[in-house]
Amino acid sequence: MGTLLALTGCDKGAAADPAAPGAAHRAGPYFDVRGLLDGQVRQLTASHPGVEKRVSLRGGAPETVRVPQVKWADELQIFYQADINKAALRGAYAVDSTSLPGGAVRRTYRLRPGHDNAPVLRLDVTSQASQPQEIAATLRQDNTLFFGQKLLQLRLQNGRLSQYSASGVQKLVLFDTLRYHTAARVL
């Protein structure tokens, strides 16, 4: 379970980071992932729900654990990586909208060619009546020493986070590949 904490925990120095949860920010031209997460952190911190997590590493059997008290800013820290509203990313994403059955709309933000340093390859936001229902982001990091790719998903019900997951692969030169999947349900 210690690895799960490493997957969802945050850096102790995050308070000085302008991208840290709760830090002041200005919404940009794309979906405001950070604003949504800040709102969820406030709402969940006030209501004190627990969480049930299922974790699987290296294809092993999944482990399930219930966590009755959650520090939500730390728990959701990994999802802040899906924020594409940064000045350096203006114009980096093509935006498409698709109408779905039942009146939902999916807005897809795809990384344009030539922006290889941007970590978010794709962000999908599915909304019903302008309220986000599901957020999915594909992120990657690739350099001479490390490769990583992950899929992050958030599901909201009635404006409240209900489920979230992170799955991916990490490969460090000279080390084995680590495949992981963690899924959580807010209680």
Topology:
Elements: H1 2-8, H2 33-47, E1 51-57, E2 63-67, H3 72-75, E3 93-99, E4 105-111, E5 120-128, E6 131-142, E7 146-157, E8 160-172, E9 178-186
Antiparallel strand pairs: 1-2, 1-9, 3-4, 4-5, 5-6, 6-7, 7-8, 8-9
Short key terms for the protein model shown above:
187 residues; nine-stranded antiparallel β-sheet; disordered N terminus; 14% helix; 3 helices; globular; mainly beta; 9 strands
Can you summarize this structure?
14% of the residues lie in helices and 43% in strands.
Q: Care to describe what's here?
A:
The structure is a single chain. The model is unreliable at 1-19 (pLDDT under 50). With 187 residues, the chain is mostly beta strands. It has helices spanning 2-8, 33-47, 72-75; strands spanning 51-57, 63-67, 93-99, 105-111, 120-128, 131-142, 146-157, 160-172, 178-186. The chain has 3 helices and 9 strands; from the N terminus they run ααββαβββββββ. The protein has a 9-stranded antiparallel beta sheet with strand order 2-1-9-8-7-6-5-4-3, covered by helices on one side.
